[in-house]
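Sharing a chain and its predicted structure for anyone who wants a worked example. Both blocks are below, sequence first, tokens second.
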Amino acid sequence: MVEVSEGRIGVSEDYVEHIELCLACRACETACPSGVQYGRLIEGALAQIETSIRRPWPQRLLRWLVYGWVLRTPLLLKAAGLGLLFYQRSGLKSMMQSTGFLDSLGRLGDLARLAPEAQAPFFFSSLGRVFPAEGNTKYRVALMAGCMQNVFFSRLNEATVRVLCKNGCEVTVPAEQECCGALHVHAGLRAIGREQAKKNIAALESGHYDAIITNTAGCGSVLKEYPDLFEHDPEWHGRATAFAGKMRDVSEFLASIPLNVDFGTVRRTVTYQDSCHLLHGQKISAAPRDAIRAIPGVTLRELPLSEICCGSAGVYNVEHTDISMALLEDKMRMVESTRADTIVTANPGCMLQLKAGTRHLARPLPVMHVVELLDEAYAAAIQE
């Protein structure tokens, strides 16, 4: 990477393949005794590749459509979600699976199986709303609703709002927020990521929030590293630093305040899969586990090698499906060894990947976000 950056060697096909095969899970950062920030190096290398090569036109078209338009345009995300909703609820999906048609499509069929479930009603309707705290207002927080989460993880976003309100938070979902740019930065599209960062900083910096919350570990890593996008822009670097200083993963935030433990009993035996960007990127390990252990009736069984990537890694499972599925197969063997009845994690991308893995188990298991488990415990208290 250094030699390419300094122009001593060119950006060859072998170099591009080697760099793009990296999961960017950042486990090497945790392992490295010298503290080398490899995640930032790989993002810089990907950005240089993006400006140095000309991809085949089908790839250019797909990247232009997805990164340039769909992720950045709520209307197009809604349209994609409605299309997927029709596919799932019309019986078309079931028919294609039962007839084996997906098997005949090869790689396209594999990708179709990884497609997330659209969740109507979408969370877009909550943008611009302020949700009052239950009881006294102790904190004013803003929720980064994300882009894909508004369509495919609407229930997770709603659960996040409820849990925060249960803990004395007035929750604002700023209407002006946009995609955080994480997928763009991870794809080497730093210029677009920088545009997204500016819009989000401008939308939230005047709110005087106690914290800015995300329930998506991959987004959280990039949101906390916004200053890196402006290393040559003193004005925006300062604004990004102030913004990043308030960014918190939802489990991290809940661990920093007196947690409302008015839980009901939840009878689950769970195992927890670390999200790479939460564990290795943000160095958060104890907070989600402590939240799980606080729930009456829940038994936590540690997952062997939980620090190893499940193979999701943003869009890695789409671009390198074979490698991703091999990692997932290993992960499912570890899950089975715990004899847990529920898998818990802290990142929507990991949830999708793990759900795909459970379809091959003898006993399919539910996959939950930590905050969904907390939400279930609060709901159980009302029913008791």
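Comments welcome. The beta strands are 130-131, 139-143, 169-172, 211-214, 247-249, 268-272, 298-300, 342-345, 367-369.
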